[in-house]
Amino acid sequence: MDIKKVGVVGAGQMGHGIAQVFAVSGFDVILRDINDNFVSKGYERIAKNLDRSVEKGRMEAADRDAAMARITKTIEISDLADCDLVVEAATENPEIKLQIFRDLDAAVKEGAILSTNTSSISITKIAAVTSRPELVIGMHFMNPVPVMKLVEIINGLQTSEETYALIEETTKKLSKVPVKAFDSPGFVANRILLPMINEAVYCLYEGVASAADIDNVMKLGMAHPMGPLALADLIGLDVCLSIMEVLHDGFADSKYRPCPLLRQMVEAGYLGQKTGKGFFDYK
Ligand code: CAA
Question: N or C of the chain: less Cβ packing under 10 Å?
Answer without folding.
Answer: C
